[in-house]
User: Which sequence fits this backbone?
C-alpha cells in the first residue's frame, strides 16, 4: 500500500457507547435500562456477563482521556445513558447524571478533543419498555423531551449531536430477532419500532435545534447494509432490492427524502398494515441533517431461497418468522467468505468505498462521517504487556485506504472513528469479543496498548497512512 495523505481538517476519532464501557449502573441515580434486564435473562449473553462494571469508564474517564490524548484523536464519540438523565417514569431530570457528562465533556475539551455525543446507543430506560418500548409512539415523544433536556444542559460543550445509533439493530435485533434487548420476537412490533425510531430522530432534531438554534450540528448514525447478489439472476437481484428496502431505505427514505418506498409496504404487507404511520409524521422525520454517520464493518451476499414463496397474512400469524428482517422470509444469506474476523464477519473494504460513493451520489450536498469501523480478533497479551494484532492493523489500513478512495472520488467524508477506543461489552457476546485499539484486562481494568493503537497514532500524527 502506498502512503496516502488526508485533508488537514479531516477528523480522526475513536468511539464507544455508554452501556459498553461505563459500568456504575446504580450510581448517581441511574435506574435500569433494557440491557440490565436483558442480561439477567438466562442464555441471553454468551458469557453470562453484563455491563455492570464493563470498563469502569464512569470512574476512569480521565485516564481514558489521557490515553486518547496520547493516541492523538481529535474527537471522542461516546453515548449518553438515558436512564442516568431521566431515571423515573415521570421524566424528572437527574442533575447528577447530567453533571457526569458535563465533567466528561469538560475533560475532553481541556484535552483538545471534540465531544460527539450519541443520545441513544441502545440503553432505553426499562420503565419505557414496560410502557411498550419503541413500538409505542409515546417513546418517540419521550425521546424528544430527553434530547431537549440534554441539549439545554450540554449544548455549549457538544460538537455534534447524533440522535440514534444504528436503528436497524434497535428495531430488528431488539424486536424481531430477539438477540438484543429487550429480546422480543415480534415482526409487526419491529416495524412499528422502526417508524417510531425515525419519528424519534426527527422530533429530537427539532428539540435540539429548538434549544440551540439552527446551527446545531445534528446527525444520525446508520449501519447501512452493503448487499451483494449471489448471481445476476432476476430473483437474486430482487432479493437484494428487498433487503435494501427493509435494511436501508426504511431509514434513508424518511430521513433524507421525507417518504417511504411504497414497495416496502408491499414487501411487508403480510406482517403489518403500517397503520402506525400518521399524517404529518414524514414531515416531522424529514429534518435537515448536518452530517450523516455511517458505520461499516462487512458486507453480505444474498440470494432468493430456491422455491420459497412469501407466506400469506394468516400463515405469517400462525407461524411468525423469527429472523431479523421483517417480511424477508424468501431471502437467504450465503456463508461469508474468509478470512473472517472473530465475529464471523467478512472483510470487504471495497464495500466501504461503494457505500460512501453511493450515498454521496444520491445526496451530493450531504456531509458524511464514518462513525464506526473496526474488527474483533483473538488478541493475546505478549510478555511485555502489549498486544500484537497484525490482523487488526491490516483491517484498519485497508478500510482507511478504502475511505481515501471515496475521498479521491469526491465523497465529502469529514472524519473517521475507530470502533472501539477500548475493548468493551460486546452486547450478546459479552466480553468474548475484543474490538479495542486498547486492550482491557478486566481483572485490573488496565488498558493495554495494541499495535493497532500505535499504527493509528502514527497515522494521526502524520495525517497520512504510515509508510
Ligand atoms: O459494538 C457494536 C456497537 O455498539 C454498534 N456497532 C457495531 C459494534 C460492533 O458490533
Assistant:
Amino acid at each position: 500500500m502506498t502512503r496516502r495523505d488526508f485533508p488537514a481538517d479531516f477528523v480522526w476519532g475513536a468511539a464507544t457507547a455508554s452501556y459498553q464501557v461505563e459500568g456504575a449502573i446504580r450510581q448517581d441515580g441511574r435506574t435500569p435500562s433494557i440491557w440490565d434486564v436483558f442480561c439477567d435473562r438466562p442464555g441471553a449473553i454468551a458469557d453470562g456477563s453484563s455491563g455492570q462494571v464493563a470498563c469502569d469508564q464512569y470512574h476512569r474517564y480521565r485516564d481514558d482521556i489521557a490515553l486518547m490524548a496520547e493516541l492523538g484523536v481529535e474527537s471522542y464519540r461516546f453515548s449518553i445513558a438515558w436512564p442516568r438523565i431521566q431515571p423515573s417514569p415521570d421524566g424528572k431530570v437527574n442533575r447528577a447524571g447530567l453533571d457526569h457528562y458535563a465533567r466528561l465533556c469538560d475533560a475532553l475539551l481541556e484535552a483538545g478533543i471534540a465531544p460527539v455525543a450519541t443520545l441513544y446507543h441502545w440503553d432505553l430506560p426499562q420503565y419505557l419498555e414496560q410502557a411498550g418500548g419503541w413500538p409505542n409512539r409515546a417513546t418517540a415523544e419521550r425521546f424528544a423531551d430527553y434530547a431537549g433536556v440534554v441539549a439545554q444542559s450540554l449544548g455549549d460543550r457538544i460538537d455534534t449531536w447524533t440522535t440514534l445509533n444504528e436503528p436497524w439493530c434497535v428495531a430488528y435485533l431488539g424486536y424481531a430477532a430477539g438477540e438484543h434487548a429487550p429480546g422480543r420476537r415480534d415482526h409487526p412490533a419491529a416495524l412499528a419500532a422502526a417508524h417510531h425510531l425515525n419519528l424519534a430522530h426527527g422530533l429530537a432534531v427539532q428539540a435540539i435545534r429548538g434549544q440551540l438554534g439552527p446551527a446545531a450540528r445534528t446527525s444520525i448514525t446508520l449501519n447501512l447494509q452493503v448487499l451483494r447478489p449471489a448471481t445476476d439472476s432476476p430473483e437474486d437481484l430482487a432479493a437484494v432490492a428487498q433487503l435494501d428496502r427493509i435494511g436501508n431505505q426504511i431509514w434513508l427514505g424518511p430521513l433524507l427524502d421525507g417518504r417511504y418506498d411504497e414497495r416496502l409496504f408491499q414487501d411487508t404487507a403480510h406482517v403489518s398494515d403500517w397503520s402506525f404511520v400518521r399524517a404529518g409524521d414524514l414531515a416531522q422525520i424529514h429534518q435537515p441533517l448536518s452530517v450523516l454517520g455511517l458505520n461499516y464493518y462487512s458486507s453480505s451476499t444474498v440470494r432468493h431461497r430456491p422455491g420459497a414463496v412469501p407466506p400469506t397474512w394468516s400463515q405469517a400469524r400462525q407461524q411468525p418468522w423469527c429472523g431479523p428482517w421483517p417480511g424477508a422470509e424468501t431471502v437467504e444469506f450465503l456463508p461469508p467468505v474468509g478470512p473472517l474476523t472473530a465475529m464471523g464477519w467478512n472483510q470487504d473494504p471495497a464495500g466501504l468505498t461503494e457505500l460512501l460513493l453511493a450515498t454521496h451520489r444520491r445526496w451530493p450536498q450531504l456531509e458524511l462521517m464514518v462513525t464506526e469501523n473496526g474488527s474483533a480478533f483473538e488478541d493475546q497479551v505478549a510478555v511485555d504487556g502489549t498486544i500484537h494484532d497484525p490482523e487488526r492493523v491490516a483491517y484498519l489500513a485497508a478500510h482507511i485506504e478504502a475511505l481515501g478512495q471515496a475521498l479521491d472520488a469526491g465523497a465529502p467524508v469529514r472524519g473517521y472513528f475507530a470502533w472501539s477506543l477500548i475493548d468493551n461489552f460486546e452486547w450478546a457476546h459479552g466480553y468474548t469479543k475484543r474490538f479495542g485499539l486498547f486492550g482491557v484486562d478486566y481483572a485490573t481494568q488496565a488498558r493495554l496498548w495494541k499495535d493497532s493503537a500505535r499504527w493509528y497514532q502514527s497515522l494521526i500524527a502524520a495525517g497520512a497512512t504510515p509508510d
Observations:
- The chain has a mean pLDDT of 97.
